[in-house]
Amino acid sequence: MRQVILEINGLEMVNFSPNNYNGEMNLSYTVDGEKKVQVVRFDLTRKIEILVGSILKFVKSQGDQDVDEDDLVGSLFVKRLKDEDKIEERLLNFFAKLCEKVRFMKMDKNHVNYMKIFHEVRGSKVVLN
Q1: What is the pLDDT of residues 23-77, one digit of tens each?
Q2: Which of 37, 68, 107, 113 gives 75 a disulfide partner, CB atoms 3.0 to 4.6 angstroms apart?
Q3: What would the DSSP string read from start to end of the chain?
Q4: How many whole angstroms separate alpha carbon 112 and alpha carbon 19?
Q5: pTM for this prediction
Q6: CA-CA distance, 8 to 31, in Å (whole number)?
């Protein structure tokens, strides 16, 4: 039986739309040591648990192996997300702060503060390993 190790390395905001509060982020992850980057889109007005759950679900869906029909037992594999609880907690904290900034941005009428928060949101990133 083979084990596939999945690891989330980080998230970085690539694009942020203040009109509808949608963001595009580069999700960096590894599958058995092979680095991959995927652009993911989020509505930053949704609940953070849903955002984090969708990231974890996406990464867990990666790393599928080919099944050899002649040797089914030999083609079994187990996927494991490295430090899943720690990663989930850090993602929840990251999105909580990010969504709080977006909420302040929606309420702020001062253009100087609005642009300051906009640049903070647009430049946000988290490194997870």
Answers
A1: 999 999 999 889 999 999 999 888 999 999 999 999 988 876 655 566 666 666 6
A2: 68
A3: -EEEEEEEEEEEEEEEETTTTEEEEEEEEEETTEEEEEEEEEETTS-HHHHHHHHHHHHHH-------TT-TTTT-EEEEETTHHHHHHHHHHHHHHHHHHHHHHHH---HHHHHHHHHHHHT-EEE--
A4: 17
A5: 0.84
A6: 9
